[in-house]
Amino acid sequence: MPEPSPGSRPAPRPTLEAVAERAGVSRATVSRVVNGGAGVRRPLAERVRRAVEDLGYVPNHAARSLVTRRTGAVGVIIAEPEVRIFSDPFFSQQIRGISRELTAQDTQLVLLLVDGPGDYDRIGRYLAGGHVDGALAFSLHTDDPIPALVRRAALPTVFGGRPGWTAGADGQAVPYVDADNRGGARAAVRYLCGLGRRRIAHIGGPPDQTSATDRLDGYRDVLPDAEPELVAEGAFTEESGARAMERLLLRCPDLDAVFAANDLMASGALGVLKARGRSVPDDVALVGFDDIDPVARTTDPPLTTVRQDVEGQGRLMARLLLRGLDRQREGGPAPEPVITPTTLVRRASA
Amino acid sequence: MPEPSPGSRPAPRPTLEAVAERAGVSRATVSRVVNGGAGVRRPLAERVRRAVEDLGYVPNHAARSLVTRRTGAVGVIIAEPEVRIFSDPFFSQQIRGISRELTAQDTQLVLLLVDGPGDYDRIGRYLAGGHVDGALAFSLHTDDPIPALVRRAALPTVFGGRPGWTAGADGQAVPYVDADNRGGARAAVRYLCGLGRRRIAHIGGPPDQTSATDRLDGYRDVLPDAEPELVAEGAFTEESGARAMERLLLRCPDLDAVFAANDLMASGALGVLKARGRSVPDDVALVGFDDIDPVARTTDPPLTTVRQDVEGQGRLMARLLLRGLDRQREGGPAPEPVITPTTLVRRASA
DNA sequence: GTGAAAGCGCTAACAT
DNA sequence: ATGTTAGCGCTTTCAC
């Protein structure tokens, strides 16, 4: 029986050579056909394709990589502070977007989880080791060691979210994809103004994340004269939003609107508002940010919020990197940052 | 200035050859040193190591892979029905465990997200393409196409969770890692019995997942004569647990205990019980399964539940695969399944 | 348009 | 213990 018995070695995969022989052509011709078939006459190409099919030929990636000097893989770095990413729908969507785009470009996604401070070393070596053609990283905090790593590895990298340090040490622009946080915040606050609200508070995120500071900046763009008491700092968690809301209520009992820097905090704030007997949106109008999937539409009332296309951002990150690879290979410039638009989604909370 | 100007090509990486020349030895010797240095005299090895250091030599992975026929990477397949995995703490922990183990073994994690039925084809080609040495897959449903793929690709694979089909088409055992679902369920139900409960109901998971059927089997092991009315089917979601609880209450108003096949459903059931005025644990004792992180300890009352070490399972999957790789390479047998123990965690709900 | 030939950087026999 | 040598499977000039 030709059935491989449990103890037999795996069958050796057919090589270009084998295909060439079967098709009665040279290896070079097969190679051309396999790689798009440019410059090969139809009948020949057909014969080759048939031979490939018959033999079940699959190109050997290592051999190809050895000569092309491309791995066809990119690393996605997920740093320690973000280990929870997988529980965060935000990241999961972004990864999904990245995966979609990479897949479409026949590029592999190598997941690099940073699992502790000691891991940065390992990741750095890996990146420098030429295992991947480029990297994607999420730059959440200003003191992240990742940027230095990829810089040292001289590896093309695109960041998700505007990095805290805007330019590299050598003045090169750092490529990143980010939502228009500032513009979205402006839209939210303007909307509240348009509703006739006069005492508009803000619950901000942690000041070491640009998404938080950018949204705060947007708030200030519209309300440059807002009293400092109207701004409370949270940590992007529901709990922290609740605490911030309590402080705000204490400091400014007369507030009539709140713009929270994300939906989670908005949800926390909503709970406190209701518990304190303030009706939303009648007494206090509430706007969030992100339009995060279950949260924003399942609160009571559902949240008016600023939507950003997270999956699209992921796709964009991958696309930017892949485009940049070809260019940088030729010594071209790194790709420019991309800011994706946001839209205000009206629901019942404002 | 030796600083690479923005328009310069990336510096070519030093090769074995360069190191050999600098150290005044042959390529073979350098190779030996780089790969552990067995059989090379101290002083020589030292000289080589210094040269490696000086030149910043990093082995070319493609070249090595070409000759060793190992890629040093494994694919982690995540199928469409589980796209939410990233929001599921269960999977995120498992991935973390996998990542930890692979990292420790210097093996890369290539993430393969199946993004639709059409993707199975692509994944199949990829797996057959020799890009990875093995695969890790989660076999949630009985009709999953993944098993067929890896089988066709003749790729060593370890499953997370017992697959629905216990043996391969050729009678080979399928390697997997799973919690002792049946034993854990038995422990839970026995515990309820020990509490003096006499009408113990069960909320089961979807019957096409072995984790659900195994837990049901465990329940039946202890209560072989339980009336069918005491068993309701859920879908492992909080909502489905609530619905199942409602049905149970209708059919068996006199029940005094519930064993739910996971914590999410237990949480849903808890809500219904409280809404119906049944106090937990006084009127109805409740036990869950998984000890899922925020859920089990934050319900009111906190859940008594069956804990499984999910991260450990992930690590085990990776370890099993890597060990199996070496063996199977020599035509050895696939690794045996591993069942990890569960422990009953007593909290306030039972 | 097609083929011949020269490597890509490395490991593993095989010599010594 | 170390060096020599022959490829691994592929792409890519360069002739024809």
TrEMBL record, chains A, B:
Pfam families from the UniProt entry: LacI, Peripla_BP_3
PROSITE patterns given in the database record: HTH_CROC1, HTH_LACI_2
Protein name, as recorded: LacI family DNA-binding transcriptional regulator
Keywords in alphabetical order: DNA-binding, Transcription, Transcription regulation
Record GO terms (molecular function): DNA binding
Organism the protein comes from: Streptomyces hebeiensis
Keyword Oxidoreductase applies: no
PANTHER family, sorted: HTH-TYPE TRANSCRIPTIONAL REGULATOR GALS, LACI-RELATED TRANSCRIPTIONAL REPRESSOR
Domain HTH lacI-type: 14-68
Record domain HTH cro/C1-type: where: 15-36
Residue segments, region Disordered: 328-350
